[in-house]
Specification:
mainly alpha; about 100 residues; flat; 3 helices
Length: about 100
């Protein structure tokens, strides 16, 4: 059994990450035919793969973009005037490709 970290030693984000890890761990343990030793042997091979590094960079980039968007959104909410009606922000429609001009013979 792994020692459990107390919530007083973890930040809320770390606590949430630990809960996610524990859920994944429990799902794996409950999966029929799961062999933890296969996972232990596979991890060192995965760590050195360039594809895993690329995927990790993509995940971190996505998380950073979400964090920045959340920060900007909170900044605008803090600066908004209280009790004022919210003004909907128009969203940009995806550009439609133009059809080629008709040829005249």
């Amino acid at each position: 059994q792994q020692p459990k970290a107390t919530s007083s030693t973890l930040s809320p984000e770390e606590q949430k990450n630990l809960e996610h890890f524990n859920r994944i761990d429990q799902i794996l343990r409950d999966s029929p035919g799961f062999d933890p030793m296969q996972l232990v042997n596979l991890v060192p091979k995965l760590v050195v793969k360039p594809e895993l590094h690329w995927m990790g960079q993509q995940v971190v980039s996505g998380l950073a973009q979400r964090a920045i968007a959340r920060m900007v959104r909170e900044l605008f909410v803090e600066q908004s005037v209280p009790n004022s009606p919210s003004i909907p922000v128009p969203t940009a429609e995806p550009a439609q490709p133009a059809l080629p001009a008709a040829r005249r013979s």
